[in-house]
Amino acid sequence: MKRLYIIKAGTTFPATAKQFGDFDRWTAATLGITDVEIDIVDAENGADLPSVQECAGAVITGSHSMVTDNLPWSVRLEEWILSLLHTDTPLFGICYGHQLLAKAAGGQVGFHPRGEEIGTVKVALLPDCVDDPVFQSLPQSFLAHVTHEQTVLRLPTGAVRLAANEYEPNHAFRLGGWAWGVQFHPEYSTDILRSYIREQKEELEVAGRNVTELLNTVSETPYAAQTLRNFGKVVKESLTGKRP
To answer: Is there a domain that residue 187 lies in?
Structure first.
């Protein structure tokens, strides 16, 4: 039986993990799928990636690594992403996964010229969301949790931009009808984001950021979380032979 794979591309801060678990746990909980078996693959630590034939779909998590470092495990994952794209396997990349998806398909990734985006931010949908199965049910703008230094500087040829804000023009995109990337974190809770802000307190203050304000403006992000649940529906529909 085909399974939905959560491809773990990294691990969170030790203190955050002790309190809340890790990327795979947050992602599985937000997906909320009960009728499709989910497996975790620790790609960062060299676990074998599943064959396309085994894969009903995949979610690639965030990471504290940088895509541009081209680490061996990341290069392998990038090649695996291409195999999924060639077979129309449902794919959802989060933050690092979003960037790696773009790079695998020919886009460009690098450090954001304005530095790190962090906190709860407003994201706006773009016109092509009107018939997108992951985004069409969302309001025109919604709140999302973010923490990233690198970004998709140039989308792959043929990619459809789906969401943006003043800081980040490529907050979400789609390739074909089956692959999505989101720069924001649909799997983060408010507690997880606050933990991330506290863990980066010194660096943020050096960069001139108001950490107290960042913490005080953390808000719930139900619509961002809905994108991951909607992707779960796409996976289930693909197993029944329905295109989204």
So the answer is: yes
